[in-house]
Amino acid sequence: MEHARAVIIGGGVGGTSVAYHLAELGWRDIVLVERAELTSGSTFHSAGLVGQLRASVTLTRMMMYGTDLYRRLKEETGSDPSWHEVGSIRLASSKERMEELERQAGWAKTFGLPMELIDAQEAQDRFPLMSTTGVLGGVWLPTDGWLDPSGLAGALAAGARKRGATIRTQTRVVGIDVERGRVTGVTIEQGGERSAIATDVVVNAAGIFAPEIGRMVGVTVPIIPMAHQYLFTEALDGVHAGLPQLRDPDNLVYFREEVGGLCMGGYERDPAPWGLDGIPRDFNGKLLAPDLPRFEPMMAGAIRRVPAMEEARVSRIINGPEAFTPDNEFILGESDIRGFWLAAGFCAHGIAGAGGIGRQMASWIVDGEPELDLWKMDIRRFGAAYRSGAYTLARSIENYATYYDIHYPNEERQAGRPLRTSPTYDDLARLGAVFGEKAGWERPNWFEPNADDPRFGGRDGLERLRPRGWAGHHWSPAIAAEAIATRRFAGLFDESSFSKIEVAGQGACAFLQRVAGNDIDKPVGSIVYTQLLDRRGGIQADLTVTRLAADRFMLVTGTVYGNHDAGWLRSNLPDDGSVEIQDVTSSRVCFGLWGPEARDILAPITRDDVSDAGFPYLTAREISIGSVPLLALRVTYVGELGWELYAPTEYGRALWSILWEAGRDHGLIAGGYRAIDALRLEKGYRVWSSDITPDETPFEAGLGFAVALDKAEPAMARDALVAAKATGPRKRLRCLVLDDPLDVCLGNEPVRVDGEIVGRVTSGGQGFAVEHSIAYAYLPPDRAIGTHGEVEVFGRWVGFEVVREPLYDPGNARIRS
Fold first, then answer.
1. Is there a catalytic annotation at residue 254?
2. pTM of the model
């Protein structure tokens, strides 16, 4: 039987890039198999645009790496990807779009990208064919460009071959072998003959065929092929080889040069899913028939921006299916089947991302972790709901249709809702809940009637707190009322969507000691706050661990992180079967009761001792409230006295009712997740995926107190942590207080000290109790408490001071009262 260190399925830019980068890291025994010829999938009909600045830090870094790679591929491999570094212009035809571009220009500074704001005339000077009608301005990025997608795949394949990789075309994978949850090999078919390749690593880079390959091992790959159209014109006066790309999102179109003419495409409001009942076996190197009625709105937008398009002769229209995901991010990483990896779902920007995709995948496969934080691209972000084709379709259609929309902070998507609801859903609705959605769960963002609470000045009194600009969209005075009420009285929060993971078995404690930074081996009933750390000391999860029994623990993490955290835990399980992991989220509701009145509310409705002596902070007890048996955890994410109350789901409505009635005379308010975010900012509590990620160690994040280097069972990150502590942090997460409480950061704003860009904001918001606008940012270690600087908020530099944290109750007297 043939053996390979890795088998890569798919010969487009994704598969060839993974092969290239694995070979670059020294892997030689690599086999790439392609069912037809290289680039016969979506690659050959891609438009080839490469833009660098994206919606996330990681994706931007990946695009920047790709651009650097594409510049040197011809010289390195001898195969020309036809790279054209012509720059790009993005236009704004509305005030809101111009604000978006101002934000992007500020963000670009933190990457060192040479993006600049330009006016309409400057844009026309660079792209003379465009009309300036309605254009308020734009941004210019000279290092963007475009290339030949097939040429890119050919160059990457050539580079992989030079380093020893084998590429087999006209070869289909017809089976994948799995034993005890691990890949052991693949069966291929070539020329009518079948053979087997033994391997521990299979990379599914099959594009629109990725779901079909995933089904071979029982892995759902939530991808919807969408028919994506663009056209080429014949030669036009004024078009030349150095013409930059032009994007006009308000007209839903993009342009680039092609052989003296223009390539024009965009994103329609009425997407056309394709292949939902299966993709034909022989769909290789093929296109779909043009859909002219669906193309007409884009053509109208193209003519408005480039009038010459009205008389231009169209040489051909391309209509080809491309793989889109429900959130417009790539699908990367290892699945629940060990050794079965995904590099798929490229969402029409896979050409720009191919270089970075290959590099990160290769690093992940070889080193066990990628170089960058890939949470937003990790397959584990998709929970069980995406096993439903209908749900995946609804979310993907909505995503495609709004591709070019302005997306304001805290915007909520609507497709496929409601899906997952707490037992209290109807009760919360009657209280005026404004619901948001996370991981399919309906969750109250705020309760609109609370905006009229006279205790805090009512709607008119609280409206003065509305932040300026974009932060004031999707905002309500009720958020402030709920946060202030929790500080003064008490708040009741339905947090049933919190992910709950049970780790049990004879080896459970030792296992958690190995993956967690803190000491988990505490008495039964103890709660430990900790991070799960990889071998480099990077933060893979941020959660609490409650010891329910000698061999059983409950881990509580954020709503959207449960699948990721459970997957990461499973990927590090011992092979002896001594540990079992189970997601038990749906088995229990969770209500947070917090505030100075919390004990007075709870004590009369339970016979159990809830005094500080009888129920200390960071302990758990089985108690009853009224007739409801439950697990109570004395823990907080808002910085107040209180409990998280976990009851079996069937008791949920009864428990809520008991608590709600008991709190009537104590000023109790129903609170939503936006108030929680404000409260946690005042206490300096971190959010994984923004404030803390795998790119940071606990020491850099200000979480050194949650690291136990001397525990009996050392963490697998111990060596990295010891080294990190000895050398000192490269950066430190600092709390910034802005000069004006109505200037609110949204994340990723550049931070400037003494005229130098020194970092970017990780998260920001309002602290209503402390009456400040608060932001967190990683700064150089020498930028300590008392440092003054500026944050760029939509083109305006706003002053700040680095302050000691937490701003609220620094001695933690309230949570321990």
1. yes
2. 0.96
